[in-house]
Request: fold
Amino acid sequence: MSGTETETYLANGQKAEYKTQDELLAALPATQTLPLWKQMKKLNPPEPNPRCVPHIWKYDELKPLLLRTGDLVTDKEAERRVLMLINPAREAPCTTDTVYAGLQLVMPNETAPAHRHTAFAMRFIIEGSGGFTAVHGRRIAMRRGDVILTPTWNYHDHGKDGSGPMIWLDGLDLPCFQHFPVHFVQHYADPRYPAENVDTSKSPLVFPWERMKERLDAAEGNWASKPYLKEDGSDVSKTLGGSAERLSKGSSSPPVRETASSVYHVIDGAGYSTINSKRFDWKQGDTFCVPSWQTYQHFAGPEDDVYLYRFDDKPMLKALGFYRVDGVDIESLVSEQ
Ligand code: GTQ
Reply:
């Protein structure tokens, strides 16, 4: 040792090159490591930390734009003529952090050509007549209020007879593939995959609105929620699930805070929702999103009963063990193994 310089030695007698933590930290990036202790709170936050924010998309504003795309963008150019609903705090394809929604338009005599992909889609039919979607050989008529499934890897094309536009709300699990970059698409050789008409009242891919409305109206109380489930009682997919709700005029749903994020569409009526204490007024045709772990509650206006459609990432969260709703005994969440 020379002069007053002090040198630090490790327990094994080797000279320590980094005298201070700062010196050590400065050396880390070059080795492709970082100190966890500087990001511990961020990586293990005290509660869910959604990046998306609540937002509402007004149908009156979007419908004219969507219809104009019918003049300016051909079915061929678009493949799918969709206005994606993009969360203000995120980029496409995020409507919430985990769920995607878009408004799709098909005009008469058009074809949104056949393709298939890993992503799952569920569609809520908003308006129009004469539209159909062909799901792996099964041609399904689109009717207002119906929910139609496109299971993973099924070829599907959309088309329309008659006059006027056909508009529906797509719900897909596309944001998942930001985390799992494993999404494949395959295009069919022809625009249409050969298909036969099916009786929509018997197809497991279709949830007719009359039937869902009957279930909601038969339920007791001012507020009712009913899930869309497959015949075996399971969710409509491994990723996304859905439900519909009825609120009698002037009534409200119970407040909920859950790790699922969701997209709501107003089937009928008008009212508002509070999401994280912020008020969002809505009416028929509007679509809004609820981020994870933000308390939400719906309020029907005084005029009419309200019906809401919702899809969410609950099946995916449950499968992964990530689903939690405020109010449960958290000790019940302790995994057995
Ligand atoms: O109809 O196949 O909104 O593939 C986004 C991706 C719809 C569809 C979307 C798609 C589709």
